[in-house]
Write a structure and sequence with these properties.
elongated; 4 helices; mainly alpha
Length: about 110
């Protein structure tokens, strides 16, 4: 479920083209005609119905999922200190400032007409 978000972040961080999967094909299932929704449904059915877990096993899985979530957050937080993210933010801020300056200029031109 998070593959789309991760793919988008990797594209942005690496400066890859938005309309291409070059450099991120390992995160993309589109070319392989894989129905991700069907896979998720099958996995959920298998875990919820066919595995027949006892309460102790369910608790261990839940504990592990919390650890996994924390590890993923730690991994994602490392991008905040990367030079690439700083470049992306600087570029975005410059574009935003230029846009605001243009809007302000237009508004002032209309007001002082």
């Amino acid at each position: 479920a998070g593959g789309f978000i991760i793919r988008k972040m990797v594209k942005r961080a690496m400066g890859l083209k938005r309309d291409s999967d070059d450099g991120i094909r390992g995160l993309s299932f589109d070319e392989r005609n894989i129905d991700c929704r069907a896979i998720r449904t099958k996995i959920k059915h298998f875990v919820n119905v066919e595995m027949k877990l006892n309460k102790a096993q369910e608790e261990r899985i839940l504990e592990e999922s919390i650890k996994l979530f924390q590890m993923n957050n730690t991994l994602i937080s490392t991008i905040h200190d990367s030079p690439t993210l700083k470049q992306i933010c600087d570029k975005w801020i410059k574009r935003w400032l230029i846009f605001c300056a243009i809007v302000l200029g237009v508004l002032l031109a209309i007001y002082f007409r």
